[in-house]
Write a structure and sequence with these properties.
The protein has about 550 residues and is of the alpha/beta class. The strands form 4 sheets. The protein has a 7-stranded parallel sheet. A 6-stranded mixed sheet has the order 3-2-7-21-22-23, with no helix packed on it. A hairpin with a 7-residue loop joins strand 2 and strand 3.
């Protein structure tokens, strides 16, 4: 049988068990039909075969981002971006918000995302009075880059029914000044509650997910593990968008939400739906809870106080017994389970729960996970290995936030978002960006996993550096394994889905410091070329 598409003259990084590097690939339909030398593949070329000359460039399995927020990323593209190059101060941000207020009808939300108080000239958050000065007719919400903290105006507070008399929700803070007046700053669950209030229309959400899908595909991402947004409504939205082809990336959807995640988990467990239900386009993933906060907030739950604040050890959403009650039941009912756990205290609590769940309801090949696994001390890694846990670290985090980590956690950065330790200790781990928290580009994630330096050039736990091939595996085969999909994707092998990414150079040959400068030449998903730059040669 002649091939539909062939790629020849390439650096074919198969990510098979031997990490083989071939020259060419053939595709029939939506599957890889042959992998080998140019000579072996050229015999499969027929009159109708599309022939792509890679000219020595790399072709890899489509990237799998094992922790990303598609919906949140998408809606952020509709808002003011605090990461835009021209925003260097609070004043710059306020000017952009004023411009938004001038064109948005009264009563509608004005939103900004990606704010980082350490990156602006004033080194502070905007105040509630500054936001009130922009508008008292529009609710305004400025969300920090971590998505765990926000600052809002008084109109937004009124919309949510919050004032000086409001008590802090469990796991959150409604900040007040010394005189007891609300400052507009909302931390953790208080922020999640407000995010729920700042809802979007159906048309906005459909536009948002289409944008996100297009951006991800242009970056070589063909599969994502969706880490949660707005609960059951998000599931309905994603499935509708996949049906209409507004979403093209494959989705492994975690059963979790930013606000009251336990409610969503309990509903899904009661419904009888379990991990793995679905198809190659959309599949139910693990049941997920939030256990602590943001590594840059900083609000993660640590066993020892912060280096920057000896009197502070972060925020916990749930007590250990609560985590066990919810996720232990999910485990018992056949779910893969996971938690957002950044600090070593939160990680330890969750591991205790998994240990108890497995003792009471043993199950082989459960592949329970930990999202982020921020500060993974050696004793915690040992327990991960014993329990068969899959951590999902975020390789790009040290690039954008590494200097902040050193300030808050000191020497603990040596075990933050570990990689070398996991590989050496035989722990399966998969990489995720956590976008929109940071850049979704997998090539940046691979770059940082190899180099372990911040944007400023500071070394961040360089003992966790791994090889280029090991980093590629984090974003391909390991991601497939974390979603029980290693038999159908994650490597370039005969019979697997034709999800591929072509780069503009040879990733195994470029200098490691230049990996982040590589570009995606083309993205192939399900045997179809969905993204292509003009420089990819067809003959």
């Amino acid at each position: 049988m002649k091939a539909d598409i062939v790629f020849i003259n390439g650096e074919v990084i198969t990510v098979d068990q031997k990490n083989s590097v071939a020259e060419a690939i053939a595709i029939n339909g939506n599957r890889i039909s042959a992998v080998g030398t140019n000579q072996e593949i050229k015999v499969l070329i027929g009159e109708e075969t599309k022939v792509m000359d890679l000219q020595g460039k790399s072709i890899l399995p489509g990237f799998i981002d094992s922790h990303i927020h598609l919906i949140l990323y998408g809606v952020n593209q509709l808002a003011v971006s605090c990461k835009a190059g021209h925003i260097e101060s609070v004043e710059d941000l306020l000017n952009d918000l004023k411009e938004k207020a001038s064109v948005i009808p009264k009563g509608e939300w004005i939103r900004a995302w990606g704010f980082n108080e350490t990156a602006v000239k004033e080194k502070r958050y905007p105040t509630i009075s500054e936001l009130d000065a922009i508008s008292t007719d529009h609710p305004i919400m400025v969300t920090r880059t971590c998505s765990h903290i926000s600052v809002v105006n008084r109109r937004a507070m009124e919309f949510a029914g919050l004032d000086e008399n409001s008590e802090n929700p469990a796991g959150g803070i409604i900040e007040k000044d010394k005189e007891g007046r609300i400052t507009g700053k909302l931390i953790e669950t208080a922020n999640m509650l407000m995010a729920d209030m700042a809802s979007y229309t159906e048309s906005e959400l459909m536009k948002a997910v289409k944008i996100a899908s297009e951006h991800f595909i242009a970056s070589g991402i063909t599969s994502i593990h969706e880490a949660g947004a707005f609960g059951p409504e998000s599931f309905r939205l994603m499935q509708q968008a996949i049906k209409s082809k507004d979403i093209r990336v494959r989705i492994y959807a975690m059963v979790g939400s930013l606000n009251n995640s336990h409610e969503f988990v309990n509903k899904m467990v009661e419904s009888g739906v379990v991990t793995g239900i679905g198809d190659e386009k959309f599949k139910i993933g693990p049941a997920k809870l939030f256990t602590d906060g943001s590594s840059t907030g900083p609000t993660i739950a640590t066993r020892e106080p912060y280096t920057s604040d000896p009197g502070y050890s972060g925020i916990l959403y749930y007590e250990e017994e609560e985590i066990y009650q919810i996720l232990g039941e999910a485990h018992k009912n056949g779910y893969q389970i996971t938690v957002h756990a950044q600090g070593d205290k939160a990680i330890e609590m969750y591991l205790n729960c998994v240990e108890k769940a497995l003792q009471e309801s043993p199950r082989k090949d459960h592949r329970h996970r930990i999202e982020h696994a921020g500060i993974s001390a050696p004793d915690l890694q040992k327990k991960m290995k014993e329990l068969g846990i899959i951590p999902i670290p975020n390789p790009p985090f040290p690039y954008e936030f590494g200097d902040i980590y050193i300030k808050h956690y000191g020497n603990r950065v040596n075990h933050m978002y570990a990689a070398r330790d996991y590989i050496d200790n035989g722990i399966m781990a998969a990489g995720g960006s956590d976008a929109p928290v940071t850049d979704h580009n997998p090539l940046l994630g691979i770059h940082v996993a190899v180099n372990r330096r911040s944007k400023s050039g500071t070394k961040i736990g360089t003992g966790q550096s791994i090889s280029v091939m090991e980093a590629i595996k984090l974003y391909t085969w390991n991601g497939a394994f974390a979603s029980f999909d290693e038999d159908v994707k994650g490597s370039i092998e005969v019979g697997k889905l034709a999800d591929l990414v072509v780069l503009n150079d040879r990733i195994l040959k470029v200098h490691p410091h230049n990996i982040k400068d590589l570009k995606v030449e083309s993205t192939i998903l399900n045997g179809e070329i969905l993204y292509r730059r003009e420089t990819l040669v067809e003959i």
